[in-house]
Amino acid sequence: MIKLLVLPPGINLVLLLFVGILWFKRRTMALFLLIVTFLLTYCLATPFVANKLLQHLESGFQPLDISDNSQLHAEAVVVLGAGRHSQAAEFSGEDAPSALGLERMLYAAHLVKQLQLPLAAAGGAVFDPEMESEASIMGRYFLEYFHIITRWQEGGSRNTWENAINSGREFGNQVSTILLVTHAWHMKRAKACFEKAGFTVIPAPTRFTSDSLPVALSFIPSASALSKSTYALHEYIGILWYRLVYF
Fold it and tell me: Which helix (H) or strand (E) holds 177?
């Protein structure tokens, strides 16, 4: 609940609420908050700002070079879940991987087939432990659409930290060096979690952010840019929170 209030558009609505409360008693303060809210909303909704926020998170990571796989020494590919499409009508009401999850799965499948490594999927049921886990959903889709068996399914986690800790328990002594697949903007936190859990991590980031728009268009606000900014801010807050709580 708190996360929904500190990230866009929740934080923007909270600021507007304060503007309304202050308008009749402290109009100068209300006007100041209104200007801040407008500027914050505009900046976060521009592709220029959204891309810069994501690219800063991605800095330090490069696409994985698998041309010489003898240098990788990995024992498994681990792909992290990224939510679900609940009760997908087009799939007979079964849960399906989210769009972000499918992006990670596509790259994980590519690595598994190119490197001939076993696959592990990590992701639980965040809101209801009785639901099918994200790992199980990914396992179904890997088998049906990529013809890949998921050897390990870690389905008890609620966040990235638990992905790492529970994966260690799932592997036992079988795996110590992994290719970790997640979005490039999520890799910094994910890598730190798995290293803290005792793994040697070879980052395998996917979906790097690119500046594909002309400069002039990058300052025109859009819903997709605001969504990107939300992912980025969620990650910055997550990194700070994990440093305070886990690391």
Answer: strand 177-183
